[in-house]
Specification:
Order of helices and strands of chain B: EEEEEHEEHEHEEEHEEEHEH
Number of strands of chain A: 12
Oligomer: heterodimer
Structural class of chain B: alpha/beta
Bound molecules: flavin-adenine dinucleotide, iron/sulfur cluster, FE2/S2 (inorganic) cluster
Number of helices of chain B: 6
Low-confidence stretches of chain A: none
Structural class of chain A: alpha+beta
CATH superfamily of the largest domain in chain B: Nucleotide-binding domain of ferredoxin-NADP reductase (FNR) module
Strand order of the largest sheet of chain A: 3-2-6-7-8-9-1-10
Strand order of the largest sheet of chain B: 10-9-8-7-11-12-15
CATH architecture of the largest domain in chain B: 3-Layer(aba) Sandwich
Radius of gyration of chain B: 18 Å
Number of domains of chain B: 2
Number of helices of chain A: 11
Low-confidence stretches of chain B: none
Mean pLDDT of chain B: 95
Helix content of chain B: 10-25%
Strand content of chain A: 15-25%
Helix content of chain A: 25-40%
Mean pLDDT of chain A: 94
CATH topology of the largest domain in chain B: Rossmann fold
Shape of chain B: globular
Distance between the termini of chain B: 37 Å
């Protein structure tokens, strides 16, 4: 799609105007000593370039708790779909998180359409922003080819001084800025290219290296299915599931009933779940199919860079670095694991 | 509409099969038939309690009524056991891949059921026996822990009486009423003769059973592609999203629960 220039002042005015008109705008803001996504009252509150939020913004399209259906039992049974969403603008989303949402789009739109997700997704306008410096010391987005969005945004902003260079990803995005956008000329594209070259160099210098080639990760993980690494690292795992909760691409869920006290009305809701939790695979006979924590760590890592990578042709770890930061025992970081696998056995 | 919304169904009849298992006749209020394959399952919803994946125990049919054989082990299954004829539940499905029974036409079939595994297998057995002429030899091996845990006892008698079916049953622990074989299911193997290349072996039972039975079949030189199994995993959605049922990269609720052994032999997490 096309790109435009928009003056920062005009853009912020546009957003503030929307907020005044009651539009829900969510952006990263400072909360105590952390950054988190929150509904904002003014664009003044936005943290434009980090620090990174503790949790990814996936919860705005795939809430931690979400009603799927509701029912009433009174002279017969009535069941209704709970496919609802508020129109929301997600502003200041970093590329790793845009890509996370783009991956969720794939899985929830794959046959058996998940309307509950898709409705929320359609109602969200995603306005991303390019990171020109790494937003967290743990991130490795550059190594995962995730410093720019693959898909799944309406607008993507790059700070080029007084203006934002804006890539348009959808008709809705284009309409949104139609009153304030200016055409780009060749020199703007050149300027952007320079900024990105500088960004690449900086990220290449600052972010930890991924020793194996990105496209070889599925093969590396396949060959190392039985590596002792899994048990060595697994032995230190608390099974707390934090690494699942913070991850922009983890989308496993549990489904539970919530009944009102009168027992006549109720709903079924889904809740984020995590493959690192013991009960994740427990069946009624008591059997747990991935009882060992090492086996669960392997499953988590393989989902990101082997199973889903192979299936969709794209890594399911966007390199945001949140899991590595959240893990108290420092065992889960995919880049770390992959480098160790690559380095062992006197490979190459 | 959401894939998570169940259709409302009515319990037509409840039959106590054993102390822990009941057979439910169920009909969708829409009057539609389920149109299922043997080996497929539905998500059964007890309003206010939750859902459980349950195999369809009746044979494929155009009739609106189908059967589920349910063991009471936890929240949902116990709540279901408390339901009486006339009460309503929710049904989603049928889900998963079952047996494409046209594939088995003309072949010899060795059914091997352990415990509750007979519930799903019965769907296929009944389909085969209903058009018995379409198939070669038919063997049924069935093992339970104790005689009083045998399911569908009236039907077992019929199968035993049929001349065109070779039926053998065993129990792990016998009692004074039991005159048949005592021992795990593999102890039935020496009694039966089958042509390993012409026979399709179909196994459904508890996880521990598979390894032993498959070993036995391999000893008898049954090729991998003639072995079929159905795997149980935790399931929360049945539609390939929630991640609970995954075996390595395979979603059991989508690509299973019925698998050809050749297809999953290489999956370390399968058996
Ligand atoms: C594809 C598929 C087909 C199935 N087909 C059938 C079928 O045809 N018939 C059938 O009866 N079941 C079938 N099951 C199993 C059935 O889905 C489970 O028994 C059911 O989900 C249990 O749900 P629940 O809410 O009753 O149990 P929960 O409330 O989830 O209770 C189970 C929990 O309680 C504990 N628990 C309770 N009872 C026991 C016990 N006896 N031993 C050990 N732990 C226990 C366990 O730790 C477990 O976590 C099938 C499962 C799958 C995946
Ligand atoms: S696996 Fe870790 S680094 Fe990769 S996307 Fe998830 S949280 Fe971020
Ligand atoms: S890897 Fe770390 S964050 Fe993940 S479950 Fe284990 S201890 Fe928790
Ligand atoms: S049961 Fe949810 S993915 Fe298979």
């Amino acid at each position: 799609m096309k790109s435009y220039l928009v003056s920062k002042g005009d853009f912020l005015e546009l957003i503030d105007g929307m907020i005044e008109n009651g539009k829900e705008v969510v952006a990263p803001v400072k909360q105590e000593n952390q950054a988190n996504f929150k509904r904002i009252k003014s664009t003044k509150d936005i943290l434009w370039s980090g620090p990174q939020t503790v949790i990814s913004p996936k919860g705005f399209v795939f809430p931690q708790e979400e009603e799927l259906i509701e029912y009433e039992v009174e002279d017969g049974i009535w069941v209704g779909s709970k496919v609802e969403a508020k129109s929301t603008v997600l502003l200041g989303i970093h590329p790793c998180d845009i890509n996370g949402i783009a991956l969720l789009d794939k899985v929830f739109a794959e046959k058996n359409l998940d309307e509950n997700y898709l409705k929320k997704r359609e109602s969200a306008t995603i306005i991303g922003v390019e990171c020109l410096t790494p937003c967290s010391p743990e991130s490795f987005c550059y190594r995962k080819g995730s410093v720019l969005p693959w898909d799944g945004f309406d607008l993507f902003l790059t700070d080029v001084g007084d203006d934002f260079f804006v890539e348009v990803g959808s008709e809705a995005g284009k309409t949104l800025i139609s009153g304030i956008s200016r055409k780009t000329i060749q020199s703007d594209a050149k300027k952007l290219k320079k900024i990105r070259e500088k960004r690449d160099n900086l990220f290449a210098k600052k972010q930890r290296k991924l020793k194996p080639k990105l496209e070889e990760l599925p093969k590396l993980l396949k060959e190392n299915y039985d590596s002792p690494i899994w048990d060595e690292r697994g032995a230190k795992c608390f099974g707390c599931g934090s690494c699942n909760m913070v991850c922009p691409t983890c989308y496993c869920f549990d489904v539970r009933d919530c009944v009102e006290i009168n027992l006549k009305k109720g709903s079924r809701s889904r809740f984020w779940d995590g493959c690192m939790l013991t009960d994740f695979t427990r069946i009624a006979s008591g059997e747990i199919f991935r009882e060992e924590r090492g086996a669960r760590l392997r499953h988590r890592t393989n989902r990101k860079d082997f199973y889903l990578f192979e299936k969709w042709g794209r890594t399911f770890c966007t390199g945001c670095g949140r899991c590595g930061k959240a893990c108290l025992t420092k065992i889960v970081d995919p880049l770390d694991i992959e480098n160790e696998l690559y380095g062992r056995k006197g490979r190459r | 509409m959401t894939v998570y919304k169940p259709e409302i169904a009515k319990i037509k009849k409840v039959e106590q099969l054993t102390k822990t298992e009941r057979l439910f006749d169920i009909e969708l209020l829409s009057g539609k038939s389920l149109d299922h394959q043997p080996g497929q399952f539905v998500e059964v919803y007890v309003f206010g309690v939750g859902e459980a994946p349950i195999s369809i125990s009746s044979e494929p049919s155009k009739q609106p009524t189908f059967q589920l054989c349910v063991r009471a082990v936890g929240n949902v299954t116990n709540a279901l056991h408390n339901k009486r004829a006339g009460e309503k539940i929710g049904i989603r499905g049928p889900y998963g891949k079952g047996f494409e029974y046209e594939y088995f036409i003309g072949k010899d079939i060795l059914f091997i059921a352990g415990g509750l595994g007979l519930a799903p297998l019965r769907s296929f057995i009944r389909a085969v026996l209903n058009s018995r002429g379409d198939y070669g030899k038919v063997y049924i091996l069935y093992g339970a822990r104790r005689p009083q845990e045998l399911l569908f006892r009236d039907e077992l008698k019929e199968w035993e009486a049929r001349k065109d079916v070779e039926y053998h049953a065993t129990v792990d622990v016998g009692d004074e009423t039991w005159q048949g074989n005592v021992g795990v299911i593999t102890t039935l193997f020496p009694d039966i003769r089958f042509d390993p290349r012409k026979t399709q072996a179909i196994i459904i039972g508890p996880p521990v059973m598979y390894r032993f039975v498959i070993n036995e079949l391999k000893n008898r030189r049954v090729p991998d592609e003639n072995i079929w199994i159905s795997l149980e995993r935790k399931m929360k959605c049945g539609v390939g999203k929630c991640g609970h049922c995954q075996i390595n990269n395979v979603y059991v609720c989508q690509e299973g629960p019925v698998f050809n052994y050749k297809q999953i032999k290489s999956l370390p997490e399968a058996i």
